[in-house]
Amino acid sequence: MVKINKIYTRTGDDGTTGLVRGPRRTKHDLRIEAYGTVEEANAFIGHARLTSTTMPKVDNVLSRVQNDLFDVGSDLATPGADDADAEYPSLRVRAVQTDWLEKQIDHFNADLRPLTSFILPGGTPLSGALHIARTVTRRAERLVSALVEIEPETSPEALRYLNRLSDLLFVLGRVANSNGEKDVLWVPGNYGDVRKG
Question: What is the spatial distance between Cα 26 and Cα 17, in angstroms, rounded to a whole number?
Answer without folding.
Answer: 6
